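Can anyone check this?
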Amino acid sequence: MEEFARVQQKYTEEAQKRVRKDGLDQYQVLSQSDSDRLRHLVDDVWADHEALDALPPPLKDGDRPKFLIVGAGYGGIVAAVRLILEGFSADQIRIIETAGGAGGTWYWNRYPGLHCDVESYTYLPLLDETGFMPSHRYAPGLEIRNYLQSVVKKYDLEDKILYRTQLNELEWDDAARVWKADMTSGRGPKGAEKVALSVNAEFVWLTAGLLIQPQVPKLGGVGLEGFNGDILHTSIWNYDVTGGSSVEVFPELSKLKGKRVGIIGTGATAVQVVPYVAQYAKDLYVFQRTPGAVYSRGQKPTNLEEWKKISAEPGWHKARMENLAYNISNTPGVPDLINDEWTRQTAYSALVADPEFAMVTPEQVPEVIGTFLARDAENSARLRARIADVVKDKETAEKLTPWYPMWCKRPTFSDTYLESFNRPNVHLVDTDGKGVESATAQGIVANGQEVPLDILILATGYKSPGAYGADPTTRAGVKVLGRGGQTIAERWAPTGAATLHGYASNGFPNLFWMSPLQSGVSANHGHPLDVQARQIAYVAAEAHRRAGGLTKNGIAVEVEVAAQEAWSMRIMAGATRYATMTICTPSYINNEGKVFDSTAPIEDQMKKARSSPYSAGMMAYVDLLRNWREEGKLSGMEVSFS
């Protein structure tokens, strides 16, 4: 017990070092920066503008698509395919996308070493439907990008996507039962020529991802923009600076030879980038605020005979996704089909929830937190022992050791990251929780000392999903005027978030979205995306069947007020279980330590609680939706048609 108490004290001390008054304001979103140099770090360098200009546009001013899907990333692609599998045709679907190609995160992210951090047999979408076999247990980013593009092609969606297009405003026309969608599309070199167009969509589906706005720290001195060397953000890797190309799984970063390279960040991205850059740079300086929890990866090529066993039965992919969710939620009696480091994280349900602690009273909070800390004790001790064993220099190993419960930051997985610090050209610059201080023309200042650099890599992540609140239109960057000209923020102001099952709300007919709030969440984000896509596609198809067929126009599907209030109250009632986040070190997961404000008026706390995920966990959410569909009543929804 003495050791357990010592560890908890260490957790508290380390978390307090990292709490800052400015919270999320310590960062600036690159696309919104006052610096031209920083803003251009997120320009779409991957788009083939000449080829895109040569394509006939899939949307023209005045068109009336049945479905307008906003986003051609993982979620948008799965949304379109699930509609097709429900019986709608690809011709009834149009997709708009800000990028110059499909894939979302996997279009933008092309840094060396990129792989999925969840087993690709469960993460990649629609594997049962496509028959695709991933090359490795954890597929490389290039393979994932190519696979998503192959799904677009397989389902005849290639000519249904309008790229380089930003949706600006949606306005509901109650009489016509359509959404008037105003957007701006880019054409010409670099997409710089902007063309406005407006269409009338019967149904709109927002699919903005969780991590969509790259950010960097606000630094003193000359600021990042004043650094004279090359700068790149990992969200859009600049191979002109490093050498290599985005179409190689193992690019040769020849331009880093002889260079002093700095990388700010030690999260999931840096864990993959550092080992790769270390092979080429003369010196690599890794600036660390908080060490990552780095478990072993266990990467291996897919064995054909093993794959045949995994994929033998129809429905295997859905069952495998559910098996991972069951095991992360510690469901008794469920065999572990995955058997990797994710399924060994017995305390991760402190973040993603489980049925055992679905309803927790305030008085039970200390006991619940203690339960999860006890569950994690052996796992965290094992992690600390691994670091001490791998990293040869004792002082460096101690600085790379994380001191927080494992659910507080997304765990990372690598068989090469920790090993990189045994190389003589790799230098850890630990800031003891303070972060880097300032930039100079020649380098970065940390711990009061300047580190001269030639190239600076920013692995500083994205704006926290929690910063957007529960309003999906804010996350999507779209102004949405529902019935009566109200926005979602205005509609929800009196009560807080109000949805049915997390994907639709009263006052906004025929508008759907994907969100972790008021719904189930998982370590495998592909799972809830597919679950919500299946659900929304079913709702749309069933509404059409009741109205007379999948080609019927003039249909309106809307959540009933009583139903969304009942669901939102259930979400609020279960929110106390997430008090497990109050002991965490600051990160994007808990809004840099600002996830709860116990000093706020109780009414405001209750409103915020309605933005929580479903407290019984992913599979309880899946079962609830399955039962809802099997009832066949569209309970809580009103369908009207002309």
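Reply from J.R.: I decoded it. The chain has two domains: 2-43+213-297+382-458, 54-212+466-547+555-641.
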